[in-house]
Amino acid sequence: MTSPNMIILYVKDPAESTGFYRNLLNREPVVEAPNFVAFPLDGGFTLGLWRRSKVEPQPSAIGNRGEVAFMVAGENAVANHYEDWRRRGLPIAQELTELDFGPTFVVLDPDGHRLRVCEPDK
Question: What Gene3D superfamilies does this protein map onto (predicted)?
Answer without folding.
Answer: 3.30.720.110, 3.30.720.120
